């Protein structure tokens, strides 16, 4: 019988624990006995407290909130483009959970590192969950998912000595011309957002919206911070914070929500008709490219407010699981190859990281009707039965009172394919054009910081790696390449004595040259 007092410590079997200070022993000096169930339960659970970290985006912070739809896309009725229910009525609210993250390093790494930031949103809609798994930057390093594990390996520490080494990262990047645009953002001040509240978010990949006629358009999603604005850190400012604080961004988010200063973002979309757009000098499905906002304006569709901190970090933040495959009716995939590669990867890793029944955990479960014929597996704790369903029937079709297929929500979107099965790059790679545009669009101080950060990282790299990178920067913009080359020449002229300062500077360059994934 457990005690009436609900503060009483118990085991998970409900046994009251009357001594939590002493293990059971033969005499006060031991030896200990092995039938000591409360001790065994406590220590063996402790032994299993950690689950595998996320292979990327291990360091994160989360918050609950709400999405409020505007009922329009820009000035047009949103139903023209998508039938997704969460967007249709002005003022309609959908609860959500967000996890922000850094990418490359482990669960307790500093939040000041030069690294993209993850921006993953789980909308608990009436039609089930929608996950929008994005980053702060609007583009990515690569466009083919086959390259992702190599990219991440090159950004992570050396497998021999576990040390960060920009030479490995730039070795990969200098053989990956399509990364030049992302490198240009990452080594500029945009590579270190000041915190999680004051940064933008973007879905990066191209998705589709589908209307009730089954007609699709291409769409890109962007989160724009509202009242809190955007703020990035210069390298030296990040260093100052890092000297005393490794978790400033988690703290900033938590404190803001605790004091009622709720961060807000507006969700905007860019829309393109669903075709190849031969008039553009890039492919709309290429995630290394921006869609120029002059041609494809940002159209507002709703607002997100984060207003509640998690009650338990592990349950809600660590075990949360987002994936690009998690779409609701009216939203669809485009043919973006990387999006399709990602879609396999997320739920695969989550079945390993959290377990086969990860979708039954409260943070991941939809807040709507769930009824499946999926059964059993590790840690299943309830059966997905519908009210009145015959519990003997765990298959479909059945005439004995099992689950039935849902009626169609609208006409299917049925793109037609007529092509050979190939291994081929997209045709319009244009790896350097937008990198040059971005370089020229920066203000002088942003360009100065970009060059300084690149020189700091590249000066520890071998000559051929430097040369290839300078070649890419030059193809983007002659001034860009020239300034990096001159900066490196200058750094070489200064270097070579092996002074303590230089050793420190080189370690510093290594620490800050770590880039990322996604
Ligand atoms: C996390 C794979 C590209 C954003 C992850 C995880 C994997 C992964 C395996 C760990 C998930 C988990 O343990 O729950 C990939 C692959 C990519 C890719 C294979 C490319 C082929 C991207 C891109 C973005 C992105 C382009 C941004 C748009 C994120 C975010 C998380 C994440 C935000 C953390 C989600 C969370 O907070 O739990 N990715 N990723 N990834 N990825 Fe990617």
UniProtKB/TrEMBL annotation:
User: Which top-rank group of organisms is this from?
Assistant: Bacteria
* UniProt-listed CDD domains: catalase_clade_1
* EC class (word): oxidoreductase
Please list the cofactors this protein needs.
Answer: heme
- E.C. number, please? 1.11.1.6
The residue ranges flagged as biased composition, category Basic and acidic residues, are: 405-416
Domain Catalase core, residue spans: 10-404
Q: Which UniProt keywords apply?
A: Heme, Hydrogen peroxide, Iron, Metal-binding, Oxidoreductase, Peroxidase
Q: Segment Disordered: which positions? A: 1-31, 397-416, 491-518
Q: Which InterPro entries match?
A: Catalase, Catalase_AS, Catalase_clade1/3, Catalase_core, Catalase_immune_responsive, Catalase_sf
Provide the family line. Answer: Belongs to the catalase family.
The protein here is known as: catalase
Q: Which organism is it from?
A: Paenibacillus aurantiacus
């Amino acid at each position: 019988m457990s005690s009436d007092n609900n503060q009483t410590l118990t085991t998970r079997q409900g046994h009251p624990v009357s001594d939590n200070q002493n293990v059971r022993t033969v005499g006060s000096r031991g030896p200990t006995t092995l039938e000591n169930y409360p001790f065994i339960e406590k220590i063996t659970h402790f032994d299993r407290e950690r689950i595998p970290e996320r292979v990327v985006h291990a360091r994160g912070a989360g918050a609950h909130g709400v999405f409020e739809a505007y009922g329009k896309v820009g000035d047009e009725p949103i139903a023209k483009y998508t039938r997704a229910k969460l967007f249709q009525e002005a003022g309609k609210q959908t609860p959500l959970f967000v996890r922000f993250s850094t990418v490359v390093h482990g669960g307790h790494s500093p939040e000041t590192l030069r690294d993209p930031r993850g921006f993953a949103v789980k909308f608990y809609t009436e039609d089930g969950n929608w996950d929008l798994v994005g980053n702060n930057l609007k583009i990515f390093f690569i466009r083919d998912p086959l390259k992702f594990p190599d990219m991440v390996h090159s950004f992570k520490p050396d497998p021999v000595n576990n040390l960060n080494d920009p030479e490995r990262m730039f070795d990969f990047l200098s053989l990956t011309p399509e990364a030049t645009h992302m490198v240009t953002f990452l080594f500029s001040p945009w590579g270190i957002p000041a915190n999680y509240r004051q940064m933008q978010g973007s879905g990066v990949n191209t998705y589709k919206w589908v209307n009730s006629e089954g007609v699709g358009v291409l769409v890109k999603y962007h989160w724009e911070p509202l009242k809190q604005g955007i703020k990035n850190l210069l390298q030296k400012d990040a260093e100052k914070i890092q000297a005393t604080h490794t978790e400033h961004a988690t703290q900033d988010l938590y404190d803001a929500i605790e004091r009622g200063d709720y961060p807000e973002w507006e969700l905007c979309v860019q829309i393109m008709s669903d075709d190849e757009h031969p008039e553009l000098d890039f492919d709309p499905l290429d995630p290394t490219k921006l869609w120029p906002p002059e041609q494809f304006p940002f159209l507002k569709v709703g607002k997100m407010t984060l207003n509640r901190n998690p009650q338990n970090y592990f349950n809600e933040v660590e075990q949360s699981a987002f994936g690009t495959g998690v779409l609701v009716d009216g939203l669809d995939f485009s043919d973006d190859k990387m999006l399709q590669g990602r879609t396999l990867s997320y739920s695969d890793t989550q079945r390993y990281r959290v377990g086969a029944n990860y979708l039954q955990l409260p943070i991941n479960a939809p807040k709507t009707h769930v009824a499946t014929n999926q059964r059993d597996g590790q840690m299943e704790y309830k059966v997905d039965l519908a009210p009145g369903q015959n519990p003997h029937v765990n298959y479909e079709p059945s005439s004995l009172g099992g689950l039935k297929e849902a009626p169609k929500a609208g006409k299917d979107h049925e793109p037609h394919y007529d092509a050979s099965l190939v291994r081929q790059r997209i045709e319009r790679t244009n790896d350097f054009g937008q990198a040059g545009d971005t370089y020229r669009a920066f203000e002088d101080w942003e360009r100065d910081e970009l060059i300084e950060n690149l020189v700091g990282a590249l000066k520890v790299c071998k000559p051929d790696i430097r040369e290839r990178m300078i070649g890419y920067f030059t193809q983007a913009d002659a001034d860009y390449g020239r300034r990096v080359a001159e900066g490196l020449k200058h750094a070489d002229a200064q270097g070579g004595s092996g002074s303590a300062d230089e050793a420190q500077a080189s370690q510093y360059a290594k620490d800050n040259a770590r880039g990322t994934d996604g």
